[in-house]
User: What shape does this take?
Amino acid sequence: MDGAATSGSGLFDRVWTLPNLISLVRLACAPLVLWLLFGADEPWPAAILLGFLGASDWIDGWIARRYDQGSELGKVLDPTADRILLLTGIVALLIDGSVPLWYGVLILAREVVIAVVTLTLGALGARRIDVLWAGKAGTLAIMFSLPAFLAASITTGGWHVAILVWAYFCGIPGLVLSYWAAVKYVPEARRALAEGRAARAAVTS
Assistant: This one.
């Protein structure tokens, strides 16, 4: 019973940590990006905020590791914030026309497939799958590319070229890493499904 109680409350252990607070702030900033870009027509502040949100993803992970503030909630909250911010950013910039169409479509296609597979695995009783390093690095690189594409679209001359080069420098490796991580998730998903079913069978037996 003690073990079951500990397992059941694990998600809510160490809720109020700095990394979790950063993740919550990042989530709250998603509507602000949309308002700056479409409501206030302020693309530069929107680009700066997107860049900050990308950097903060690395910061909260570093704090969690450096100061031992990792938590079960953080393992769910952090990738959730990543997904929502990535989708918010890429959809907004596709509407704005700041990112190449092929780039945005490839990102959205991966996110849709990952979302469908995640929901299906959960419905089938699979255990939660931890985020792979390649997936995290890919998301971070893509998050850095988005404000660069936005900034390049409102910049002229030499700065336009330099910022656009930086956008592709981050974006292409990020895209490759994210798809490579998706392939790597296939055996992880199989193990998660088998272990989840085994755990349920053990409980019911």
Notes: Confidence is low (pLDDT under 50) at residues 1-11. Residues 2-204 form a domain with the Four Helix Bundle (Hemerythrin (Met), subunit A) fold (CATH 1.20.120). Residues 157-204 form the longest helix (48 residues). Helices lie at 2-9, 18-39, 43-66, 72-96, 101-123, 133-153, 157-204.
